[in-house]
Amino acid sequence: MGSQIAGLLADRGIPCDLLDLRGDADAPSALAEGARERLLTLRPSPLSNPAALELIKPGNFDDDLHRLAQADWIIEAVSENLAVKRAIWSKVAAHARADAIVSTNTSGIPVATIAEALPPQLRSRFLGAHFCNPPRYVPLLEVISTPETDPEVASTISEIASTLLERGVVPAYDVPNFIANRIGAYSLMLTLKVMDESGLGSDEVDSITGYPMGRPSSATFRTLDVVGIDVFLAVVENSLAAASDEDEKAVLEPTTYIRELVERGWVGQKAGSGFYRRVKEAGKSNILTLDVDSFEYRERRHLSAPSLEVAAATEDVANRLRGLAVADDAAGHFAWRILSRTLAYSSSMVGIVAADIVSIDRAMRWGYAWESGPFATWDALGVAESVSRMQADGIAVPGWVAEIAAQNGSFYRHGPAGTTQATPQGGYAPVSQSSLP
Known about the structure:
The chain has helices spanning about 1-10, 30-40, 80-90, 110-115, 120-125, 150-165, 180-200, 200-210, 220-225, 230-240, 245-250, 255-265, 305-310, 315-325, 330-350, 355-370, 375-380, 385-390, 400-405; strands at about 15-20, 55-60, 75, 100-105, 125-130, 140-145, 170, 275-280, 285-290, 295-300, 410-415, 420, 430. The strands form four sheets. A five-stranded mixed beta sheet has the order 3-4-5-6-7, sandwiched between helices. The protein is α/β, with parallel strands linked by helices. The protein has two domains: about 1-170, NAD(P)-binding Rossmann-like Domain (Rossmann fold); about 180-430, N-(1-d-carboxylethyl)-l-norvaline Dehydrogenase, domain 2, CATH 1.10.1040. Helix 13 runs antiparallel to helix 14 (about 315-325) and helix 15 packs across helix 17.
């Protein structure tokens, strides 16, 4: 991930030092050099211009930390382990300029816990800047301030990221997994639990949870294979450790087959096996699907349902979601169970992971490639109708959401003066503009 962030910066003309662990005496910076060269072979390509590679200078943590004294922005992207991150920052702090901005790229470790490794004078310039993988193609950047972060530092990074790096910047609260991974982990684990209850296979579920639900074509299980099932498990366990509600804990508790896949090393695309496995048969490539009960791979199946046929022919995402959510077939029932509980959960996270609903919607669109964020989806379904249906299903919603439903209202209002968003305190607040769609 560090090399891909360097690639993103270099692609914008920014010179970078790329530092990694030290190799042997003959090739002390071999790891960083190899990571830089792999930028030319990764697919999809992290670089729009291969010549940008010349702006990335490899080095290692033992011999080259002194270079950091020339850096305006120091980005740490070592392994997702608190002890490892603290250890590297305890070394880096001695070399950072007093006016440098320093940030951690973490998928969900609270930033303030990493900041404890820094001297007090550097903590005001430290924040989380969470790039999503792969950074060239996933535009979300969550900016996470600690209580000690200087607001001007967060503002500077947000400005650089939104203009020069063309990121969709979303301010997130410093809680485990921030916004996108907190809601994304819940929605993905919920999908697994509903799959187990429904008796469908992962390939059949992917027939529902991709384009028909306004999600990427990788849907659920192909997405997990691309992300890495081991990475997903770590993210889920971050959320589980922070959960206090028993229903939330029940959804987030990893399934036995998720743990089994990690134990076997079948962690997805990088291992060659996960929920899917590509095999060669009679000289042709074929993709098989894992049966999570037998742990054997079989031919793929696609779920057939009238609502999926309608969804496939419906371009507008709001119409697609409305039609699917009310469909009286296997796909419609499955989609409603995922949508209803994900929307309710998202509303419970306002004020916990983010200050407002638009931050949550943007994080899920820009970070997880959802065509419609949770609250825009809720408006598309009709707040009053869907809340009534949720309550009939025994799904609780926060009081402020119930009040919007009682007034037959919506989460967003669009008018000549711009768009406003509902707040948990009642009333509506302006929505900040964004250069991204």
